[in-house]
Design a protein that fits this description.
25% of the residues lie in helices and 27% in strands. β24 and β25 form a beta hairpin.
Length: 804
């Protein structure tokens, strides 16, 4: 909320600058985003008057204007605005001036005619387009007739004010108003402030009840009141009111609508005005919308409603979305004569859900979501009625129609002085604490050192004694609280074993040439159900930001494939990425909170090597990615063998180039090539991926790192070649060799596979190199021969191998 510094000073005597005030608010109440003076950076923008104008000889829309800016001679300025008119006071940017966005205005020629400056619209001197009144949106702005020629324009249109932008937290809805902010400043600076409400003395002879009726039999409405005002004159608001609105970021519309918005920023209570003559049946009801019911909002957007939405409806159709936005069909226009004012309190949760679901966030919904004072509606209605009578000549009916009026009691909280001093570490006296509560407008009764505090309903954030302690702390001043060092034994900060493994995993994969990527945890249902490593149910968001982010992910691979696609679409062909993050599983459809499981995954497309004069890089294949995964898994010091078992159970993976990854028989993930069909869906080239359950890897037993003696004795290698059936795998053979190779076998490598000429059908030739070494002595031929013979016998026995 943007708070006008000048407006604040009309109520409270402040002897500090706007910047100092903002600093105090931030240290005591809520955060302050900025302090802005709209005229900052502008110069040489003055009041002028159009003395005469004539059409440009070479243009059908330009005008040559003679402008009096209080100097000896008028200025000639060429202007293309459609609303230029003689004798009007206008905003003139002189030659050498600076307007919005630091644009410098120079002397120039417009189609051959000299022009000495510029006639400005509001947005051209820094006003946001969405606050410029509709009547001035397509032309220059006319200043008041009493504006003095040659004066700077800033004071006339409120640009010399300083605007403090408050970032109000959800619990401090009371500060979304001038009165709420003033109450806080009154307590902080201990200065009096007069926050009275205006009330009309003379009412019309007619009554609201004879012209109109209302109803609200629904729990989502805490209070609902209306009043009829007849014979209004709808016209533009006076300039002072427009300035108040546009400095608060609200576009002026007309005097009636502007008054409801002014009341909202002044008192914090959203209001709405309906054209009585446009209400079907002169009756409105607060109810749930019907399925497929529609409404055209004041923004001229059509909104489809459902039965969870809360609406204000006449006898025919909805005329407003309760607490969010009004309908166009009953809006106040220049033809409006009879007005129905609405002042209500709606359920904050209901309003927030509607605003989020339909992506319609308004000033009204922001306040209803944070809570408004249900006991203050009568004061608000009286203030608004007073202003409409004053500025729109309306005849105000005395009676207020009340459909619902659930008033709330003040919150009563008990607290002791000892409790306050104990928590804050202070030595405050009883009278100091009582003074703080009274400055905040709380009722206080003391019984010894026990305090009975009566908190008004406008402070809906205070319920327990801790809330009161916070109030004492912020008004007393956080800087005044004593500071102490923590006592007790200190511990050395360190990572847990899980955190350390995750960090080591990132370092290892980066060392292997992969780049860390971070993807969204939200995705589409289709992508969430791809590359699944277990049976699970989707976790849907109730109010997703978009259809592309409606479900929590159940794999990391699709996010990486999106990243690969993004890079390749921008001509980055070689992409090697990894991601460590959580996926979300649900054991049943009705499970509320999903299980969060750490995963680590990678996606590689193209080549890992840079092109050099002596090296022609090749694209990665299954074995390149398997080598990366092998290196990573070995770095974890897992206590068990790593196996790769061919599988075709992932429909998104190539059935002949995919394997499950097992560690000591435990399934931990998969590796392989993305199916060409899937790659086409993602618009990517041939890509290899792996996805591992990091939680499982963390839980698996690890080998303790210890020193391994480097042998000073030589190693001996023996080669063995054999014919085996084609269905015998390398892993099966390796398992037999390792199991039967003896204590001195240190390494086994497959160095040849052949199944061509001179090899019988259904057979293949495989050749291995076996390395033996004794770390404590020199090996003899006899020892090696015995171990080697045992390997040969078991290969023949297990696979009917023919040793070659």
């Amino acid at each position: 909320m943007q708070v006008s510094y000048k407006w604040l000073k009309e109520y409270i005597d402040l002897d500090v600058s706007a910047d100092e005030l903002a600093e105090k608010i931030e240290r005591s109440s809520v955060e302050v985003d900025s302090v802005v003076k709209p005229s900052a950076g502008l110069k040489k923008i003055v009041v002028g008057q159009i003395l005469s104008l004539e059409d440009h000889p070479d243009s059908d829309h330009l005008h040559i204007c003679q402008i009096d800016v209080g100097e000896d001679e008028p200025l000639q300025i060429v202007c293309g605005a459609p609303n230029v008119a003689v004798n009007k006071k206008v905003i003139v940017a002189l030659p050498g001036s600076r307007i919005a966005d630091n644009v410098k205005i120079k002397k120039s020629k417009m189609r051959g005619v000299p022009s000495f400056g510029m006639l400005c619209a509001l947005d051209e001197i820094g006003f946001p387009k969405d606050v410029v009144p509709k009547e001035w949106a397509d032309g220059i702005y006319f200043l008041p007739d009493d504006a003095k020629l040659g004066d700077d324009v800033y004071d006339y249109i409120g640009m010399n004010d300083e605007l403090i932008d408050l970032d109000v937290t959800p619990n401090r809805g009371d500060m979304l108003s001038m009165y709420g902010t003033l109450r806080d400043l009154s307590a902080i600076y201990n200065k009096p402030v007069d926050l009275t409400y205006n009330k009309l003395n003379n009412y019309s002879d007619t009554s609201s009840e004879k012209q109109f009726s209302n109803a609200a039999n629904i729990d989502a409405v805490k209070s609902y009141k209306n009043r009829v005002i007849n014979n209004v004159t709808v016209k533009p608001s006076p300039l002072w009111l427009q300035i108040r609105l546009w400095n608060a970021g609200i576009k002026p519309i007309n005097n009636v609508v502007d008054i409801t918005n002014y009341i909202m920023i002044k008192l914090g209570q959203p209001m709405h005005a309906y054209d009585l003559d446009k209400i079907n049946g002169n009756n409105i009801t607060v109810r749930n919308a019907k399925s497929d019911e529609k409404i055209i909002t004041l923004d001229e957007d059509e909104v489809s409603l459902n039965d969870t939405d809360l609406v204000i409806a006449d006898d025919k159709q909805p005329i407003a979305m309760a607490g969010v936005i009004g309908g166009l069909n009953t809006s106040i226009t220049s033809e409006t004569k009879n007005v129905v004012l609405e002042c209500a309190v709606f359920d904050p949760i209901k309003v927030r859900k509607m605003a989020r679901k339909h992506v319609i966030h308004t000033e009204a919904s922001q306040r209803f979501e944070r809570g408004v004072d249900v006991n203050n509606l009568d004061n608000v209605l009286e203030e608004a009625s007073f202003m409409i009578n004053d500025l729109a000549n309306g005849d105000v009916c005395e009676d207020i129609l009340t459909a619902v009026d659930h008033r709330e009691k003040n919150t009563n909280v008990n607290i002791s002085l000892e409790r306050i001093n104990h928590v804050l570490g202070t030595n405050l006296e009883l009278k100091q604490v009582i003074d703080i509560f009274e400055r905040l407008g709380f009722g206080v009764k003391a019984n010894g050192n026990e305090l009975d505090v009566d908190v008004p309903t406008r402070r809906g954030d205070i319920h327990i004694d801790s809330d009161l302690i916070e109030e004492v702390a912020r008004i007393y001043g956080y800087d005044n609280l004593p500071s102490t060092l923590p006592s007790g034994k200190t511990t050395i900060g360190m990572l847990s074993p899980k955190q350390q493994l995750i960090r080591n995993s990132r370092n290892e994969l980066q060392a292997l040439g992969l780049t860390h990527a971070i993807s969204y945890s939200l995705t589409t249902p289709q992508k969430a159900n791809m590359f699944l490593m277990q049976d699970t149910y989707e976790t849907d968001l109730s109010f997703p930001m978009s259809t592309d982010h409606s479900v929590l992910r159940m794999n990391l691979v699709t996010g990486l494939l999106d990243d690969v696609a993004y890079n390749q679409a921008r001509n980055v062909k070689d992409v090697s990425l990894y991601e460590q993050g959580r996926v979300f599983y649900k054991d049943s459809a009705d499970q509320v909170r999903p299980n969060e499981v750490e995963h680590i995954a990678a996606a590689i497309s193209g080549t890992l090597d840079n092109k050099r004069w002596n090296n022609a890089p090749k694209n990665v294949d299954f074995y390149d990615v398997k080598g990366i995964l092998d290196s990573y898994l070995k770095s974890l010091q897992l206590n068990g063998s790593i196996e790769y078992v061919a599988t075709n159970r992932y429909p998104e993976m190539h059935p002949g180039r995919t394997a499950d990854v097992l560690v000591h028989g435990h399934y931990v993930g998969f590796i392989g090539q993305v199916h060409p069909r899937t790659a086409k869906e993602f618009h990517i080239k041939e890509t290899y991926v792996f996805d591992l359950n990091l939680e499982t890897l963390i839980d698996l037993p690890k080998q303790e790192q210890q020193y391994d003696l480097v042998s000073k004795y030589p190693s001996i290698s023996r080669d063995i070649a054999m014919l085996v059936d084609e269905n015998v795998t390398n892993q099966q053979i390796m398992n037999v060799i390792v199991k039967r190779g003896g204590a001195y076998l240190t390494d086994v490598n497959l160095f040849d596979v052949y199944n061509g000429k001179n090899v019988p059908d259904g057979k293949k030739s495989m050749a291995y190199s076996l390395t033996y070494q004794n770390k404590k002595d020199t090996l003899t031929d006899d020892e090696i021969n015995k171990a080697f013979d045992k390997v040969e016998r078991n290969l023949v026995k297990e696979f009917d191998a023919e040793i070659r």
